[in-house]
Amino acid sequence: KTDAIYLGRTIKESQDILATPHQRDVLYNANFVEHMEALIRITDDQKTWLKTKGTIPEFTWQQKELMWEFKRSVEYKMMWGVKHVDFSDPLRPMRFMEGLYHAIKTNVAVYDPNNVTDFERMINNFLYDVAFRYNPNGYKKIALAGPRFLQNFNFAFKDFRRVDTAAPSGKVGLNFDTYVLPGGFELKFLRTDMLRMGTGYEDWVFVIDPKEIEVRVVKDFATRLWQKEGGRDWNLMVEWQGTIAWHREQAHALLKTV
User: Fold this and answer.
1) In this predicted structure, what is the pLDDT of residue 248?
2) Is the terminal CB of the chain with fewer CB neighbours within 10 Å at N or C?
3) What is the pLDDT of residue 163?
4) pLDDT at 250
5) pLDDT digits (tens, 9 = 90+) for 58-108
6) How far separated are the first and last CA of the chain, in Å rounded?
7) pLDDT score recorded for residue 207
8) Given this model, what pLDDT does residue 178 score?
9) Mean pLDDT for the chain?
10) DSSP characters for the chain?
């Protein structure tokens, strides 16, 4: 194996300018704008006077539940969505944006958590070789981690986690959520429920460069309430329209299980 290092262009004394001109192109991701909606329908009695669990009106509770579920569906699309366009109806095409999972193509690593003997070393190698391989915006990134991954990560420091008389009241150990590597590399860990415990994603971790992420929102959970002519039922619609661009996907990384 040999490595080549380009040392630049050296010229003769008073030589004419002969260097080949060139420019650097930066490619940014263009994602489809996706339009999503959700709807609830309730009776006039539910809207007017019924209460849920004796605390709030039924209609208010239904709205809160609808909004929570709908926001979660948008988050899942941002994580797992597959970019494509459906022209089944040529006059009304459906567009689907690309989520983070499918956007990361360059830096993907696979491991078996049941066969890892030194978890910190494995993470260290992943960060140096994959996650911080491309750093167009510096050496600080964010990791979206599954709960089992975080458990194993913290357990790797079991000899340092336990504290005795210096422990704050009610705490039994220290929690590591930031990992620093020599050279100024820093990774901040955040737990995400999109990698739920008990699923095949609980050991996964996404590393993202926040400066390479751009959220573009056209309709930010807009709502509309109406009754059909001659009807008594009430309809409440909520819609979101937008996309998320991951731009230079080489700045992001994924560590997943086999």
Assistant:
1) 93
2) N
3) 52
4) 94
5) 888 899 999 999 999 999 999 999 999 999 999 999 999 999 999 999 999
6) 29
7) 98
8) 87
9) 90
10) ------------TT----PPP------------EEEEEEEEE-HHHHHT-EETTTEEHHHHHHHHHHHHHHHHHHHHHHH---EEE-SSTTS-EEEPPPHHHH--SSEEEE-GGG-S-HHHHHHHHIIIIITS--TT-SEEEEEE-HHHHHHHHHTTHHHH--STTSPTT--S----EEEETTTEEEEEEE-GGG-TTSTTTT-EEEE-GGG-EEEEEEEEEEEEE--TT---EEEEEEEEEEEE--SGGG-EEEEE-
C-alpha 145/C-alpha 195 separation (Å) is 7
Tokens 């959700």 map to which residue?
A: 38
